Here is the input.
Amino acid sequence: RVTKIGPSQKPAQSRSAVLTIAARAVAWTFCAFSFCIAVFALPLLIWTMHRASYTPEYRYGVAVGAPTSDAVKLWLRAANHTSFFVKYKQATETAWQSSQVYALSPPHFISTIVIDSLMASSTYEYQVLVSSPTNPSQYEAISTLSGTFHTFAASPAAVRFAFGSCMGIVPWSDLSVFSHLLDRRDLDFFLHLGDQIYRDQPGELPFDTAYKQTWSDSHFDRFIKDIPIYSMYDDHEIKNDWKTSETDSNGSVL
Here is the structure.
């Protein structure tokens, strides 16, 4: 027997098919969205929460800066030590010279000194010795507080340098580019054009925390011991798109 399908039945079947396709599309879209959340957004959220609460110890650090033909600056951090001095010598010599003793004070235990009366166009080795926490009159060498520097010629015909900016720490990355630059062994200095830290991402980190997170990177720490850096600041040292006419969260202008 042949049953005739009336016109009113065909649209119902079409609507059912359309609804089925739509439901499947919604389900696939939800699955794809959930997958993206699980693969990308969730790890990023975890990293953001970690960075906001992570403060490296960063007890020791030393950096070379501002070389001339006869002088160089050294920046030092040595937490919980009250004083230090620096031994240095030309790489081709055996006899060491010593600087005067300098004080370190809490809470930051940071100092910048000048070593002068150096020979032009010369490579020097240096070693920082810090006071013993248990016996301040005794000094001990810290292996990570050592490096080399090179003085300029009296009238240099040319210099070789690298430059860069935007030194942010992002998930699953490091600052290994600085190890590659150091391994070239042909740079006179590095010119840092700003955004040495990203204090404003995520949230607004304390200055200490933001700098410790960046400067404790092993590649950057290794680089600044041997290659002088000339630095300037941009906006992210304070906050995104910061202007010199604005104040920071403490109401003060940098």
